[in-house]
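Ligand: zinc ion. Inputs:
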Amino acid sequence: MAVFDNHAHANEFTGWGVVEVTRRFRAAGGRGIVFVALLTWSIGGRPGDRGWVVRLYDHAVRNAEVARGAGLVSGAVVGLHPAECVRLLEAGWGVGEVEGFMRWAVDLAARYVEEGRAVGLGEFGRPHWPVDGRVVELCNRVVLYALERARDVGAAVHLHLERGGQATVDSVVELVKRAGVDPARVVMHHIEGALAGYAYARGLSPSVPVGRRGEFEDALRAGSVFVVESDYLDDKSRPGAVIPPWTLASKLRQYVAKGVLSADDMYKICVENVRRIYGDLLEV
Ligand SMILES: [Zn+2]
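Predicted complex:
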């Protein structure tokens, strides 16, 4: 069985670090994992500092390299989380300054994909907590630019979004259309399980967190149209916030053993749907 975790983080500054995370994941039956860039301050960096953005991206790239060295299929997704935008605004940056900085971060991420160092851009997106309208508008402009650059370089994109039901999916569809990017390459990270079918029917790639009670079962009602993720933070100060990749692997194996999931569905979720997102960028 080929378990694939579509969105995880590994961080030796706060948790186990990539060597131990990949060792445990492999031992639990894991075959592939995508490592997504964290927050600049989660690796000891300063938000708004270009040098730290480079180090943040390189950290995710190295995590994927270590995973490949350990025999896993792996790629890096690099970008800046919407929380970085909010931090800069709180620090007194103007909206235009933040937008310019975020566009630079998008361009840098696109270059990592062009150079074969990363498979995708992310996580860009909108805060999942309530923020004022001008922040949402700023984040939407950044997302649109990320989608346009992903179209240019043939990258996947991981979007971090609020959980606003069908309206959230509809707004992503709108941005995807404007950017002219292939919607299959656009991952709705941490989507509500019940919305997986709705997002897939609109061409997007839903990524369902396995750690949230009942959501995998909700997602499966629409069929095996999604990929799965642990969204592991690798932060010992936040235990239980999300499940680790090795628990994702054992949960999926239990679903198959109990007959909740057929071997065919497992193959679709962990191989075919992964290929649909990354194409030639990842040898799944
Ligand atoms: Zn994440």
